[in-house]
């Protein structure tokens, strides 16, 4: 009973499911029995294992998984606000707890930022130990798969769209309909906006419609800016969100936004070329980079999902057991799945 299964990446796309001792929660920590843990593109750097392999071989491999949810099994000494049996989603960032970012809940900006599933054991295992403060209680109505996906995709897009102040009077363009873009559609619809979804893949555009997108555009079939122009009666979009990380889409996001419009970049991209004068100075655009969300916003995010009945599970195309981890990561890497989730009994 004191062993658990957990995933490790030895590198070079190898996946092992190994036995670990079930960890003991120390002071201020809790042991969570994992019920769902979502895979994410950002796991792939560990999966390929390029840089990670060079680290000290004697160091224990880290269990991946930064999007888990589960039930609290045991609490360590001094734990005040979490108790056995609580249903929780887990926040991925740990910080010093003292600095201005930690205090405002933006732990990922802390100088001591450490990430569950990268620097510390993550959720692709039967159990995980986390600090009490990283446990975000979930509503009774919310299942664990929805909770796991809410810790990243939905949370990130909710945070971005509240920054953009999306409302019922807005037409919002979303570029790139993977799990992030799909989450963006749901959140925008929940906020009452009209949504224009842009993707090169027709099956993703079908998903977009299923999630409530009002219009879809495939850039292979029509001119994106002309179409947006038509849909908005020549005004331009009130807001645009890029979830693709493509330089072309980022440029189109800047181009399609109306004067005083708002743009958010969410898809990761190392470098691209833009035209600041034409694209945003002369339009007085507000352009945001957005990444994750502050921990204090989660209860609002969870309530929003429940209240608006967001179909979060539609983002999940595949469920796997932890024993199927090798297949899960292979299929995810080959883009044979969209959002994929490990589920546990
Ligand atoms: Zn993620
Ligand atoms: Zn800090």
Series of secondary-structure elements, N-terminal to C-terminal: EEEHEEEHEEEHEHEHEHEHEHEHEHE
Question: Any low-confidence stretches, pLDDT <50, length ≥5?
Answer: 52-58
Question: What is the makeup of the main sheet?
Answer: 7 strands, mixed
What is the distance, rounded to the nearest whole angstrom, between the alpha carbons of the first and last residues?
A: 15 Å
**What small molecules does this complex bind?**
zinc ion
**How many separate helices?**
10
Output mean pLDDT.
95
The domain tally reads 2
Helix content: 25-40%
Overall number of strands? 17
Percent range for β-strand residues: 25-35%
Rg over CA atoms: 20 Å
The CATH architecture of the largest domain: Alpha-Beta Complex
CATH class of the largest domain: Alpha Beta
What name goes with the CATH superfamily of the largest domain?
Medium-chain alcohol dehydrogenases, catalytic domain
* Anisotropy-based shape: globular
Q: Can you describe what's shown?
A:
This protein is of the alpha/beta class and 345 residues long. It has two domains: 3-137 and 311-343, Medium-chain alcohol dehydrogenases, catalytic domain (Quinone Oxidoreductase, Chain A, domain 1), CATH 3.90.180.10; 156-289, NAD(P)-binding Rossmann-like Domain (Rossmann fold, 3-Layer(aba) Sandwich), CATH 3.40.50. Helix content is 27%, strand content 27%. The protein has ten helices and 17 strands. The chain has helices at 44-48, 100-104, 144-163, 179-190, 202-210, 224-231, 247-256, 276-281, 298-307, 325-333; strands spanning 3-11, 14-21, 29-38, 68-75, 87-90, 93-94, 114-115, 127-131, 135-137, 171-175, 194-198, 215-217, 237-242, 257-265, 286-289, 316-320, 339-343. Strands 3, 4, 5, 8, 9, 16 and 17 form a seven-stranded mixed β-sheet that branches. It is globular, with a radius of gyration of 20 Å. Bound molecules: zinc ion (2 copies). Residues 40, 42, 66-67, 152 line the site of one zinc ion.
């Amino acid at each position: 009973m004191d062993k658990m299964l957990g995933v490790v990446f030895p590198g070079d796309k190898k996946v092992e499911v190994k036995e670990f001792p079930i960890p003991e929660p120390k002071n201020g920590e809790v042991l969570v029995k994992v019920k769902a843990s979502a895979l994410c593109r950002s796991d792939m750097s560990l999966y390929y294992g390029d840089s990670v392999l060079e680290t000290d071989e004697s160091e224990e491999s880290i269990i991946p998984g930064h999007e888990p949810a589960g039930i609290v099994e045991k609490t360590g000494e001094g734990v005040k606000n979490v108790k056995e049996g609580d249903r929780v989603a887990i926040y991925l960032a740990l910080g010093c707890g003292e600095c201005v970012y930690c205090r405002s809940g933006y732990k990922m900006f802390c100088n001591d930022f450490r990430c569950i599933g990268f620097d510390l054991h993550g959720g692709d295992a039967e159990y995980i130990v986390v600090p009490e403060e990283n446990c975000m209680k979930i509503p009774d109505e919310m299942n664990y798969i929805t909770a796991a996906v809410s810790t990243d995709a939905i949370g990130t897009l909710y945070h971005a769209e509240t920054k953009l102040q999306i409302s019922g009077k807005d037409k919002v363009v979303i570029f790139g309909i993977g799990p992030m873009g799909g989450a963006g559609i749901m959140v925008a619809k929940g906020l009452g906006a009209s949504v224009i979804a842009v993707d090169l893949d027709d099956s993703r555009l079908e998903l977009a419609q299923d999630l409530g997108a009002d219009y879809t555009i495939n850039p292979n079939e029509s001119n994106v800016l002309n179409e947006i122009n038509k849909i908005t009666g020549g005004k331009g979009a009130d807001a645009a969100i890029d979830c693709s990380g493509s330089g072309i889409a980022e440029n189109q996001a800047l181009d399609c936004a109306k004067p005083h419009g708002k743009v958010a970049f969410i898809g990761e991209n190392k470098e691209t070329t833009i035209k600041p004068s034409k694209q945003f100075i002369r339009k007085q655009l507000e352009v945001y980079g957005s990444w994750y969300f502050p921990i204090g916003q989660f209860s609002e995010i969870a309530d929003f999902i429940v209240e608006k009945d967001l179909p979060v599970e539609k983002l999940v195309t595949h469920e796997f057991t932890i024993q199927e981890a090798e297949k899960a990561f292979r299929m995810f890497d080959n883009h044979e799945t969209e959002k994929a989730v490990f589920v546990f009994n």
